[in-house]
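[retry 2/3] Cinnamoyl-CoA reductase 2-like isoform X1: previous attempt timed out, resubmitting with same input.
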Amino acid sequence: MAMAMAMAMAMEVERKRVCVTGAGGFVASWVVKLLLSKGYVVHGTVRDPKDEKYAHLSKLDRASDNLKIFKADLLDYDSLRTAIAGCAGVLHVASPVPSSSVPNPEVEVLEPAVKGTLNVLKACKEVKIRRVVYVSSTAAVVMNPNWPKDQVMDESCWSSKEYCKATENWYCLSKTEAESAAFEYAKQNGLDVVAVCPGLIFGPVLQLTLNSSTLVLVKLVQGTYMQLVQGGEDSVPNRLRPLVDVRDVAEAVIMAYEKPEAEGRYICVAHAIKTRDLAEKLRRLYPDFTYPKNYSETQHDNKLNSEKLQKLGWTYRPLEETLIDSIESYREAGLLK
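[retry 2/3] Cinnamoyl-CoA reductase 2-like isoform X1: success.
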């Protein structure tokens, strides 16, 4: 009886051991924090464990006992396999996000995203991982000029790779290529893969560096989020923004791992708001910041549907809570004066 109980406990510990790739990033740090709070043992991969930018991970609750950091690179298969060995599941969050124009998209964005994802999946197959959750993006959904203009985009909509190339949208292309390659590999090799596709992610930061989605909000409240449009006037495109809180994304990722019925892809968007309306909402909360004055209207806005994820049990917090928690955390981290 005692042996049976010990074996059951050992199996439970094994089931609650997962690997999170890119553990030091904005989303992954919250995934790690949430996993630790739920009693998981976490293998977190980072490029350089000695780098100060990952110091926040060791300060998380339960990190000293239940977080093991591995030096790994997406393009180094052996390093990934070492990190994944002994885990029951993998949450693949790591992916390059270009901050501006990319001189060499093949090397800087596409290869790490696609080859890196396939390396993760090959290692998962080899060590017999139960389930992989791949954090994709709505970037892999919305770049589809053939989708009916008045139809809400759901999980059946994929970004057109040709359109991404034609418009030189390398991030969208990398996420589309990587997600489609992940599902193709899973199908051919009998691997259980679930994808979560978040929109623009705001929310409090755990790391002390600015990531690309945080930068959008910082620039908006600093009045520096500008783009030159035809006519020579600086203005902000007044597009519809699909927003979601980083904490709600972390919940969605873990839900996609834990729920046996989870399958396929899940759009993860909580709020849709025009940029001008977002700035006005922020102005009411923080009137002392500098906000953009000029906006240019966009021709077409994509509307997204998170109904499938909500049916799985996902809920999200109010936008105002996300905005306040974001700004206050940026101030605390010294990212915003």
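[retry 2/3] Cinnamoyl-CoA reductase 2-like isoform X1: Residues 21 and 45 are 5 Å apart (CA to CA).
[retry 2/3] clearing retry counter.
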